Amino acid sequence: MRALDIQRVLGGLGPDPYLPMSGRLLEARDLTERERFYRVELPRPLGHGPGQFVMVSCPGAGEAPISICCGPRDDRQLEMVVRRVGGLTQVLHGLQAGDSLGIRGPFGHGFDLDELQGHDLLLIAGGLGLVPMRSLLQPIMAEPERFGRVTLIVGYRTPAEELFREELAVWSKLPEVRVIRLVNDRAHLPWDGEVGLVTAPIAGLELDIANTLAVLIGPPVMYKFVLMELLARGLPQAQIFVDLERRMKCGIGKCGHCQINHLYCCQSGPVFRFSEIAQLREAL
Amino acid sequence: MEAFLAPRDAVLDWIGRLGQQHTVYFPQPSGTRSFQFERVTEASILTLESWESPVPRAAFRASANNQPPGKRLAPPREQLFTFRRNAAGELEFLPSLEQGFQVLAGVRPCDLKAIHLMDRVNSEGVADPHYLNRRAHTAIIAHDCLQPCDDYCFCEAAGSLHCREGADIFLTPLEKELLIECRTEQGAELLAQAEFAACDDPQAVRQQAEAHRAKPFGRQLAGSLETIGKALAAGWDSPLWQRHVERCFSCGTCTLVCPTCYCFDVHDDIDLHDPTAGERYRTADSCMLGDFAEVAGGHNFRGEPAARQRHRVKRKFEYPLERFGEGSFCVGCGRCGHQCTVDIDIFDIVNDLVRTGGEG
Question: Any residues with CB less than 8 A from the CB of A115 and at least 6 apart, and which?
Fold first, then answer.
């Protein structure tokens, strides 16, 4: 009789998607002046894929979307990095090992490793973009033989913002893996990488265009310029993946904040094939 | 299902009696200018003034009620859960779902359509248990409109005038009486206590009443919903977006009164008596507000008022087609244009776009 059989819908409801699970911090340490690393133990395995995110709660201070920064794993652990930018992240920065916090997720559409398999990969991360990129890098570097040549370009504003230095150093020694580290500005600090923007090395790269997939993760301002370089090299839009950032309040396609034209970034994204969103005027 | 005929006063008495037993909301005068869906109490003076036009008292700008009845399904402030720290200092998150039964009486077809759309929004993809739980415990008594409720109405053009979906009981105003059609078992339970005369041929009675419906009904859009969708798709760069926000304060009133606006923000409050406990709740938010699409670091994906206006209009007339296959999320109730403090009307924006084909 009703257009919608609500009793049936109610009967099929899973757990309340707004209700976080309670996680406990196993580890919390500063990576830079503004970024803090967390390893969380959850009541059950998260079961996430690379590129997905969680909603992190500090009850009383609020909730925000945070990128997962570890590769898929079977245990009950989750790693993430939080930059201190406002009220909630300020509170998160005060947490220590042993403290508890709320986690919902995983949410969003991330990277499909099978889709990347067998291809040369050009991975470009700007600043904090390396954090979600790490959820993709870990599984790639664990089985590099599944992929072709892997080139990782990482750029920071200054050497003080560098993240995961030791891990990158280990990965850069793998065969067929090249890591290019850049800073915009040495800022009078010791730096053993290159100086320049992440766009700088692209023109000089040896690329097998037909077999290369590119992944871009960085601040909004980075995409336009990196995309120009990649498209100039002849890389088709469908071979470029971008990970977009939006404000999000729910993670389940309801609150409206992350909407990009008709798409909800929290569900269709945050990882998109560039060809899917190239025509969407609010995407980049 | 059964149908009845009863004088208007008898129906109002029945709604009043329902209000003694259940939580019943019915449009009641609010201040001197409008009607609101307020709880029916013993003190309530129920009148059909709110939905029988032309409005007898000129001072009343009755129109569609100030706030859509659907706000009783998705309250502007709604608790999502509570939290506390247990003795070991660990956080606990405790679900909270409201269970009370409520009746929304005096719902117009435009608002019925809006509730149908919100049912879809909240049940498709990841279901929203808070909305659906409330919805499942809600009965709706709706009524037909034979006259446009005010000068802002364009429900016929928006395709909602003939919506009956979701109504448990549907009333049609006749010359002296009301036709009462029961559409669900829940409706039959509410009608069990009423002593109305049976109507043997509701279809004939209804058709007779419908013959008196104003034609055309309310304002008419300059093109079909399909034409509007096309004009919007072509009109991204139209100068009309800027022209129609010159006066806009970005106050968000238009979205606040919209029956199909459901965007929300989420907040926490700490219990002042127990700082280890508190609640998380959501509040109505608005894509017209300046910081709606701003991300950490300050980048704003819709920083300009014109971009926000465009998003709102496209979200009503273009995007729903791609996401839900529904012709329009605008139900033509006219509230946004009526309530706007500077007289910006979505009806005018859409018509201008259609007239220029989105180009100028």
Answer: A213
Same domain assignment for residues B234 and B124 = no
Q: How many domains does chain B have?
A: 2
pTM: 0.93
The ipTM assigned to this model is 0.90
* Residue B344, domain extent: 221-360
| B280 contact residues in A (CB cutoff 8 A) | 18, 57, 59, 63
Q: What is the pLDDT of residues B152-197, one digit of tens each?
A: 999 999 999 999 999 999 999 988 899 999 999 999 999 998 999 9
Out of A6, A19, A64, closest to residue B93 by CB: A19
Domain that holds residue A205: 113-243
Residues A90-127: tens digit of each pLDDT: 999 999 999 999 999 999 999 999 999 999 999 999 99
Q: Which residue of B has its CA nearest to A101?
A: B91
> Does the distance separating the beta carbons of A4 and B262 come in below 8 Å?
no
Measure B352 CA to nearest chain A CA, in Å.
21
Beta strands in A43-201 (DSSP E): 53-58, 62-67, 77-83, 100-107, 120-126, 150-156, 177-183, 194-195
pLDDT: is B298 or A2 the higher one? B298
Tally of domains in chain A? 2
Q: Are B215 and B147 within one domain?
A: yes
- Residues A121 and A200 occupy one common structural domain: yes
Give the model confidence (pLDDT) of B54-113 as tens digits.
443 333 344 556 789 999 999 999 999 999 999 888 899 999 887 789 999 999 999 999
Residue with tokens 């402030």: B77
Contacts of B272 (CB under 8 A, 6+ apart): none
- A6, A20, A60: residue with CB nearest B136: A6
